[in-house]
Design goal:
Elements: E1 2-9, E2 24-30, H1 33-50, E3 53-57, E4 61-65, E5 70-73, E6 78-81, E7 83-90, E8 93-94
Antiparallel strand pairs: 1-2, 1-7, 3-4, 4-7, 5-6, 7-8
Length: 98
Amino acid sequence: MYEIIYMRADYEPWWQFDGWEEEIVERWSFAEADQAIEKLEDVLCGMRGEHANEAERDGRFWAFWSKKEVCFCEHCDEDLQLYHGVITMKDGQPSPFS
């Protein structure tokens, strides 16, 4: 099983802090790798068109952000950067599709 997860949080997706699953906005599941790769390319292309900044880790995590997109943290008493994260999963674990 192949999955693509889109999350939105005040941290990059590779941190996967406790409760990170609560930040999931959308997820897609596929039986075949080629279907998952095609969808991943579409998702990444869309994110690149919407956000000025991108970072990638290990071919399985992507973070996208725009400097003006922040949220206020009452506990921290400051603005935090919001990140749009994409994670590729294979059999329930973060994994590249290739």
